[in-house]
Specification:
By secondary structure, the chain is of the alpha+beta class. It has helices at 22-31, 74-80, 103-112, 125-130, and strands at 12-17, 36-37, 40-46, 52-58, 63-67, 86-88, 120-123, 134-138, 147-153, 156-163, 166-171, 177-179. 18% of the residues lie in helices and 34% in strands. The strands form three sheets. Strands 7-11-10-9-8-12 form a six-stranded antiparallel sheet. It has a four-stranded antiparallel sheet with strand order 2-5-1-6. A two-stranded antiparallel ribbon has the order 3-4.
């Protein structure tokens, strides 16, 4: 799966791609020393011999998350040097400011995207905004310390975490969560 997820205070950016070369872009970012994250999931397929296999594949093909571990302007320089069409998600339409995903929010999102966690659902940012729920923090169990929105779907409870461009819901027991007050 790669190196373990380390929590630090560096925010992240979401980069929207207008190409199907997501893995090529990720490889180039890695060569340039940029830390990135692509949400992956296991996809089952049948090989040419008729055997069922699983392979890790990106959840979405048009999004890469990049850690801000460099001076402002460096990311723009790196992206402009690539032969692919892409842009960093902005705070709002027409703004020049990039949307910075807080380190804690991105840490929680990365943990929840672990492909080994089975009962989860991915959705678009727009679908996630329609979900009604309570802001909570998980206090017990393997997801202890994660925060998000507790939502109910199909008589089950899920912890919902949104980032620009997508969201993930992971099954959680509501008794392991406590409401948090919004600041």
């Amino acid at each position: 799966m790669g190196k373990p997820i380390a929590e630090d205070n560096n925010p992240w950016y979401a980069i929207q791609l207008f190409t199907l070369k997501q893995l090529d872009i990720a490889e180039e970012l890695g060569r340039q020393g940029v830390e990135f994250f692509i949400p992956l999931q296991y996809v089952d397929y049948e090989d040419k011999n008729g055997r069922h296999r699983s392979k890790l594949r990106p959840v979405v093909s048009n999004l890469i998350f990049v850690k801000k571990s460099f001076e402002p302007g460096v990311l723009t320089h790196i992206l402009e040097g690539m032969p692919y069409n892409m842009h960093v998600v902005r705070r709002e339409r027409g703004s020049r400011d990039y949307y910075e995903i807080p380190a804690k929010q991105m840490y929680d999102f990365r943990v929840m995207c672990n492909p080994d966690l089975l009962i989860k659902k991915y959705m678009s940012e727009a679908e996630a905004k329609l979900k009604v729920g309570t802001k909570v923090e998980v206090t017990h169990g393997p997801l202890k310390g994660l925060s998000g929105k507790l939502v109910r779907q199909s008589h089950k409870y899920f912890l919902l975490k949104e980032v620009p461009g997508m969201a993930v819901m992971i099954k959680v027991t509501r008794w392991c969560c406590r409401p948090v007050e919004e600041k």
